[in-house]
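pasting Small ribosomal subunit protein bS16 for the record, 167 residues
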Amino acid sequence: MAVKIKLMRLGKIRQPYYRVVVADSRTRRNGRAIETIGKYHPKNEPSLIEIDSDRAQYWLGVGAQPTESVQNLLEITGDWQKFKGLPGTEGTLKPQVEKVDKLARFNEALAAANEEPTTAATTPKKKGGDRVGKTADAAPAEAATKSDDVADATKDAAEPATESTQS
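structre below
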């Protein structure tokens, strides 16, 4: 039986991640596996590659053939060079950035929010709100001009009467 070390695809559309598995060469890509020896997340920056070195060395030693993509991953981790006896067994694997605890991030954001000065909203008012404000402001002004006009009309009416009496 021919044994291969290959990638088993998991994840969603456009968000793949893979398991590095040892399986019979005749099985499907996502078929039954003999053993899972690692994982590979290509979408992370830098890509996450975790392979159990001891198990990879064992399976390579008993004759399991890696696929091209798995061989590239083994070269990055340094397992392929160790198996072949080549120099550079440390590999070129980039370390992952350590994630900050969610609770710590929340507390930092909360502290930053408490330090900010409290000012008026920075977003502009909606157009509909401006019209309502303008009509409400304009209504008393119009009422005032109408009452002034009425007062002026009565004043004008009173003036000719006074003029006629004086003449």
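Strands lie at 3-12, 15-24, 35-41, 48-51, 65-66.
DSSP finds five helices and five strands in the chain.
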